[in-house]
Amino acid sequence: QVQLMESGGGLVQPGGSLTLSCAPSGTIFSINAMGWYRQPPGKQRELVATITRGGITTTTDSVKGRFTISRDNAKNTVYLQMNNLKPEDTAVYYCNADLRGWGGARDYWGQGTQVTVSS
What we know:
Radius of gyration: 14 Å
Number of helices: 0
Order of helices and strands: EEEEEEEEEEE
Distance between the termini: 40 Å
Strand content: over 45%
């Protein structure tokens, strides 16, 4: 059974940096788009950034210039480099992947990792 495993969250001061990582466990045949979403306290989940298998990225306006999404296809891993973090970036961050495993092709979600930006 495929699961997406996230790591790298934590507590950081404003202006600091964190890097999130996400990779699937289990048997994977192919991975198409991967992405990061976040859910701030009391708000709905929102898109942060996506990246295609070929490396084409999209980034939401509120994090442009501060966050960078990348992926290593050989490792089936997607990263989110977050710089100059602000208190409003505080949220649970979720990894998403459109991938094909034994169960066919569908969207998978990670369990979420907490990022807290506070002094």
